Amino acid sequence: MKFVRGVWQLLVGIKDALVLIFMLLFFGTLYAILSHRAAPVGDGVLDVALKGSIVEQPAESDPVAAFGGSAGPRQYSLRQLRAALLAAKNDNRVKAVALDLDNFMGGGQAALHDVGGALDQLRRAGKPVVAYATAYTDSSYQLAAHASEVWLNPLGTVALAGPGGNNLYFKGLMDKLGVTANVYRVGAFKSAVEPYIRSDMSPEARENAQALAANLLEAWREDVHTARPKAAIDPYLQNMAGAVTAANGDFAQAALRSGLVDKVGERQQFEARLAELGGAAAKERGGYKHISLAAYAADKVHEDRNGPIGIVTVAGTIVDGKAPLGTAGGDSIANVIEKGVRSGKLKALVVRIDSPGGSVTGSERIRQALLQAKAKGIPVVASMGNVAASGGYWVSTAASQVYAEPSTITGSIGVFAVLPSFQGTLQKLGVGADGVKTTPQSGEPDLLKGPSPQASQLLQMGVNSIYARFIGIVAKARGKTPEQINAIAGGRVWPGGPAKQLGLVDGFGSMDEAIAKAAELAKLGDERGVTYLDRPKSWKSAFYSMLRDDDDSSASDANETDGFATLGGRGSAELLAGLSQAREVLSGPTIQVRCLECAAAAPAPATIKAENLGWFAKLVSWLG
Asked: What is the C-alpha to C-alpha distance for residues 483 and 474, in angstroms, rounded to an integer?
């Protein structure tokens, strides 16, 4: 009896300890929320130290991963970053803007073009924009070109490469693993399935990828040349080794002589320059008066929630059902559209698309919600960001007018299905698979022995049917015949310029032009007020965002590396991104409208971990 009483007392003690811990956490959290205040904004230099990538819609923060030290790089909202820069244009507190790009991971050419436009407006308003980096890549230099002063570390480099690179092809690996990729597709250019059935690019995929890369390079060159005419971009791109040789092997001096940068100096010299522009402050990091970007955005960027023009964002891979921010859940997005329409306050809708597609049914769910809004007399305008291809283009067909940027990647009108089967894997392991059937469809598609010919026929018929529907939807939306659309479809990807010539989009323009067109169609006169139909963050993500240290000042994290270390990280990131894409395709919905080539225009992905790649990576590990 004493033993039982002792066990009971132990359990009660554990219970009391857990309750105490919970109460301490609860009241500590409550205190943190109530005492949280945005840092006051004084005058000085607005620090735009980008430590991550610029995206259309940041993914939700994972507080568990964050506190475990594996949250990955930051993501900055294009909308809010641009709004903060434009607010600084007429703010007397902002004396200059410091653009620190040492840890910048890109953002897609269309997004960077929009941010560059905001920097141009700052300069025209008389505000100096000063950029600094140890290593400039294509993305970071596209932003830096819009600065009034471009600084480079003496040990740094301007490493311009242009669009291009390699994809991973898994055919040989899958053969070794015994995995069979059963592929069903329409369109010779629908190359999303090629990594699982080939070891290299098909001629059709190479032709399309080469044309796409050439168009992206031309759009990048035009943006940089317009922003910084004195930069000798073409000679440097074509013969960087010659430029470095002429500068006696000094990469920084080669960039200076080519007009790519204005100053070569240490970070301390850069900070001294910021002190000249914004005022010295001996007690502040870097010795100059600085304004935190996060604090400034909290102070100046207040989005209107009562405007007559609704803005809905379709960003990331399109999936079925509900999904967190950063992924385009069909139901999640359709629900906010339908809720906004039910409110009776909206007179027009602008759908901002930055997606390579994904699920057919998810894409159609969003399109139907937009069509229902149109049926109630609400005009719909589409604004394409970096990517609006395949399922992203499917969504855009609901709009009366479609705007894109010259560097937008769109089209990819094609359909595919991939079903992995494991008969070879089981054979390698000495495992058999057998059973009975009552109809030809019983147990199909059989992923253990491989789909039957009848099942494969049905799957191909399903892909054909959806492709015909896709062609019909596009033809009706663009006022063309199905035959005309089929001639430019087949999975082919188009940059914004050719897409406009082919009639896939109506014109070039950013969100501003799309909002103006929506106001015109709704006959709102000069009214441009908007209501952002954003999905709410989860409470965990919202809480972490509130407590996160958002000090993005240039001096707060000067973890400079040599220029080539920055470039060296590309390989491992591309490897993990390729494996992640393989997992998404092979584990996603059976029939998909997704664009593989669109990775060329997308921002750098957040950190991807090998342990999160699912069964595909486990099979790779098993092979090893």
From this structure: 11
Task: Please give the Cα distance from 594 to 596 (Å, whole number).
Answer: 7
What pLDDT was estimated at residue 582?
61
Q: Are 64 and 579 in contact (CB under 8 A)?
A: no
What is the spatial distance between Cα 473 and Cα 302, in angstroms, rounded to a whole number?
38
Peptide bond connecting 536 to the previous residue in cis, omega within 30 degrees of 0 = no
Distance CA 165, CA 213 (A): 10
Catalytic residue status for 390: yes
Helices (H), 317-429: 330-342, 360-375, 391-396, 423-429
Q: Which residues contact 229 (CB under 8 A, 6 or more apart)?
A: none
- Tell me the C-alpha distance between 553 and 55, whole Å: 20
- List 95, 127, 190, 500, catalytic entry: 190
Question: Residue by residue, what is the 3-state secondary structure of 141-156?
Answer: HHHHCCCCEEEEEEEE
Q: Coil, strand, or helix at residue 132?
A: strand
Which residues are CB-contacts of 332 (< 8 A; sequence separation ≥ 6)?
A: 321, 322, 323, 535
CA distance 192 to 597: 8
DSSP string, 498-537: HHHHTTSSSEE--HHHHHHHHHHHTT-TT---EEE-PPPP
**Considering Cα of 418, then 423, then 426, then 427, what sign does the dihedral take?**
negative
What does the pLDDT read at residue 382? Answer: 98
CB 308 within 8 A of CB 346: yes
Catalytic residue among 258, 332, 390, 553: 390
Tokens at residue 442, please? Answer: 């019983």
CB-based contacts of 374, cutoff 8 Å, min separation 6: 380, 398, 400
Helical ranges in 134-200 per DSSP H: 138-144, 171-177
Give pLDDT, residue 353: 97
How far is it between the farthest Cα atoms of the chain?
91
pLDDT at 37: 52
Contact criterion met (CB below 8 Å) for 369 and 337: yes
Q: Which residues of the chain have pLDDT under 70?
A: 1-13, 15, 22-40, 61-72, 537-590, 597, 599-624
Question: Which sign does the torsion angle of CA 319, 321, 323, 325 carry?
Answer: positive
Q: Is 190 a catalytic residue?
A: yes
Helix then strand count (H, E) for the chain reads: 23, 22
